[in-house]
Structure formats: structure tokens, C-alpha cells
Design brief:
Elements (H helix, E strand, L loop, with lengths): L15 H15 L6 E2 L11 H14 L15 H12 L11 E4 L2 H7 L10 E5 L3 H9 L6 E2 L4 E2 L3 E4 L17 E5 L11 H14 L2 E5 L25 E6 L1 H4 L7 E4 L5 E2 L2 E2 H12 L5 H9 L3 H27 L4 E3 L5 E5 L6 H12 L1 E2 L1 E2 L10 E5 L4 H12 L2
Parallel strand pairs: 1-15, 3-6, 3-7, 7-8, 8-9
Antiparallel strand pairs: 2-10, 4-5, 9-10, 11-12, 13-14, 14-17, 16-17
Helix pairs in contact: 2-9, 3-9, 4-5, 10-12
The structure holds pyridoxal-5'-phosphate.
Length: 404
């Protein structure tokens, strides 16, 4: 008789985006004339850049000719892509990362979930609250938590680090010692980030207590301010305590194309054991490589044209962020984020709950956002708007909210 991984039974249903979709569908069917503007889901809307499309077409043609056809990709990713990443994302920022420290994948969601495979079950996990839910759920699946406490909205056995307006959405070092710390900057959902000097404190702390940091830099391309690190390896000592996750989803619109990478430095050790070797073993065993076509498209993101075109896309989204941020602040709302990230985290007015504000906004002005409580208990009383809509609908949404 087989048995199941009972840890899965600890997970409450993830109702956030399906509840939003159901509420919007119900509203739309009752009000077929209403023009609903969706600033809820964190998915890009601009088409792939011309340089990326050109590379995709070229790679498709290569796959159609016997001389240039490619089968399985190398486990770690094609060298042409890994060397381009090492040069542009690291060496250009004064950070030396070898190409065999870079593992190409199909995206940061898979990597942030899969990385747990190489860690023991007894590790104590620390996450921010609010948080990108994948870090928590995948650790629950792996047995690194107790039961879900519906009253607190938290899992027992996980350290939650509140991120609130009072601490500028930067977690404080936890009272209880963690083994693995998940950090994500610029942050989803709060849209805020951490100055390099503050990040250095986390690196120093991890080195001091022997913890590992899993650093999710999926939104690195949105960093606009000078004192923000583009990679955790800009911090001294980080190669000895941090794994970095990166994605092509938000910098180049690959959400539907799928490409990312993880950096596991060779200096990263648990006793005598190299995490780089463990991850190479795991990656090579369970993953058969991102498609050649997609890796070719990824390399085109770093071409002169690709850089210019993707920068323009980011500028477009960040102009939306500015419109939301300044428009709502001007109307008297308390808003955060949107300077180094495509998310705006607004305080709900008059102490409304996140879901009440969702219903209110949909009913009154037909604008959809994401209730902050869906990201953790400290998200209650907040609401996330994204900058990924069109410039026109963003402007209209802000106008509608201002006129509430
Ligand atoms: C913080 C964070 N990490 C990772 C991801 C997933 O990235 P990918 O599309 O590369 O899987 C997202 C997507 O929204 C995210 O917000």
C-alpha cells in the first residue's frame, strides 16, 4: 500500500488568485458593461523585445537544419549563455562569478522551490512576512514546518520576520536563530528594497551564525537607486553564505518563455561539502536543461540591442509605477514601493481590511489589485498594485481611484 507525503496535507488551499478571479468574473457577469482594469497579477504585458524575437527565429531555423540541430542542452546551461551572464550581471559590477557557479534553469519559481532538495529536513527556515508564498509552501512540502495555525495565518516551526512601514519593510534580525534565511530584494509584494549597507548586515549575521541566505533577485533590473546592491555578491563575504536566484521573467518579459538561473558559489560549504557540487548533482539528475531556443533568446537580452530594448520596457513599467505612486500619494493615500520595483504597496484607507478594500475598489471603480493579507498576516491592511498594465489603463485606474 503506497502512502503520500503527508506534509502536503498541512497546506491550506491557495485561494488568493483564484478567489480574485472568481470575484472579478462574478462582478463582470453582473455588470457586463463595466470596464474592469486589472492591476493585480504580477505578469508582464509587453511583447518580447525585437532582438529576442530575432534570436528565437534564428534558433528555430538552426533546429530545422541537420548541421545546427541541438538535442539535450548541457546540464548547467549552454556556455554561451553562462559566460554572458557572468560578464554582464557580475563582472561588470565588479563581482567575479565563474561560469560553473551559474546553473541555467526554467525560472526562479522552480529554483526557489527545488533548491530545498539539497538541505536537511531539520533546517529552521526564516521568511519575511508578507512573502512570496513559494518559499514557505515548498518548505512545508519538504517537512520543514509544523502545522498551519489558521488563527495566526502562519505555520508553526517557521520564523516569520515582519516587514512593516515601521521598519521600512526591512526585516529585523530574528530573535530565534534560523539556519536558512529567504530574502527577496527588490521585494514582491511590498515593492520596497534594502540599502546595500543593510544587506551587508544580513550577510555578516549569516556568516556569524553559520546560516545560509537564499537571495531572490528576480526584480534586480528594476533597481534605480545607487545604494542598492544588484547582486548579494556585492556584499563582502556573501560567496560564503548566499545562493542567488535570478529570472528573465521581469527584466525581459520571459514569463511565458521561461528562463532563469541560480548562482551557487564554490566557496559555499557545509563542513567539507560543497553546495555547488550538491546542486550540480541535483540539477543534472532532475532537470534536462532549458531549451536551446530559449537560451539563445536569453543571450540576446544581453546584446547591445537587447539591452536597449529591455531597458525601454522596464522604463515603460516604471513610468506606470511612478504614475500610480505619485497619483495615489497626491490623493492622500499612504504608498510604498514603486521606485526600485514594479509593485506599489498601499495602505488601505480608514483601516479597511485588505479584502474589504478589494471589494470596495472593484465595486466602486472597477480596479483590481491584490489584497496584501494574501501574502501573510503582516500584509493585512495593505493592497498591492502592479505596474505591468498598459500606460493608458494605469493612468485611468489611478484617475478612478483618486475620484473615489
Ligand atoms: C519574488 C519572485 N521570485 C520568483 C518569481 C518567479 O519567477 P519566474 O517567472 O522566473 O519563475 C516571481 C514571480 O512573480 C517572484 O515574484
Amino acid at each position: 500500500m503506497f502512502s503520500i507525503n503527508e506534509n502536503y496535507l498541512k497546506l491550506p488551499g491557495s485561494y488568493l488568485f483564484s478567489t480574485i478571479a472568481k470575484k472579478v468574473a462574478a462582478y463582470q457577469s453582473e455588470n457586463p458593461e463595466a470596464k474592469v482594469i486589472r492591476l493585480g497579477i504580477g505578469d508582464v504585458t509587453l511583447p518580447l523585445a525585437p532582438a529576442v524575437i530575432k534570436a528565437l527565429h534564428g534558433a528555430v531555423d538552426e533546429m530545422g537544419a541537420a548541421e545546427t540541430f541541438k538535442g539535450y542542452a548541457p546540464d548547467l546551461g549552454y556556455e554561451f549563455l553562462r559566460s554572458t551572464i557572468a560578464e554582464n550581471d557580475y563582472r561588470a559590477r565588479g563581482v567575479q562569478i565563474d561560469i560553473d557557479e551559474i546553473f541555467v534553469s526554467d525560472g526562479a519559481k522552480s529554483d526557489s522551490g527545488n533548491i530545498g532538495d539539497i538541505f536537511g529536513q531539520n533546517n529552521k527556515i526564516a521568511v519575511c512576512d508578507p512573502v512570496y508564498p513559494v518559499y514557505v509552501d515548498t518548505n512545508v512540502m519538504a517537512g520543514r514546518s509544523g502545522l498551519y495555525d489558521p488563527d495566526r495565518g502562519l505555520f508553526d516551526g517557521i520564523i516569520y520576520m515582519p516587514c512593516t512601514a515601521e521598519n521600512n519593510f526591512i526585516p529585523e534580525l530574528p530573535a530565534e536563530k534560523p539556519d536558512i534565511i529567504y530574502l527577496c530584494f527588490p521585494n514582491n509584494p511590498t515593492g520596497t528594497t534594502i540599502p546595500k549597507a543593510e544587506l551587508q548586515k544580513w550577510v555578516d549575521y549569516a556568516l556569524q551564525i553559520g546560516a545560509l541566505i537564499i537571495y531572490d533577485a528576480a526584480y534586480e533590473a528594476y533597481i534605480a537607486e545607487d545604494d542598492v546592491a544588484h547582486t548579494i555578491y556585492e556584499c563582502e563575504g556573501a560567496k560564503k553564505c548566499a545562493i542567488e536566484l535570478r529570472s528573465f521573467s521581469k527584466n525581459a518579459g520571459f514569463t511565458g518563455t521561461r528562463l532563469g538561473f541560480t548562482v551557487v558559489p564554490k566557496d559555499l560549504k557545509c563542513g567539507d561539502v560543497s553546495l555547488n557540487s550538491l546542486w550540480a548533482r541535483r540539477h543534472g539528475t532532475k532537470f534536462n536543461g532549458a531549451p536551446y531556443i530559449v537560451q539563445a533568446a536569453g543571450a540576446a537580452v544581453y546584446s547591445e540591442e537587447g539591452k536597449k530594448q529591455t531597458k525601454e520596457q522596464i522604463a515603460y513599467y516604471m513610468n506606470n509605477a511612478k504614475v500610480i505612486r505619485e497619483g495615489l500619494a497626491d490623493a492622500g493615500f499612504e504608498v510604498y514601493g514603486g521606485v526600485n520595483a514594479p509593485y506599489i504597496w498601499m495602505k488601505t484607507p480608514q483601516g479597511m481590511s485588505s479584502w474589504d478594500f478589494f471589494d470596495y475598489l472593484l465595486g466602486k471603480v472597477q480596479v483590481v489589485g491584490t489584497p496584501g493579507s494574501g501574502f501573510g498576516p503582516h500584509g493585512e491592511g495593505y493592497f498591492r498594485l502592479t505596474a505591468f498594465g498598459s500606460a493608458q489603463s494605469t493612468l485611468e485606474a489611478v484617475g478612478r481611484i483618486r475620484n473615489l
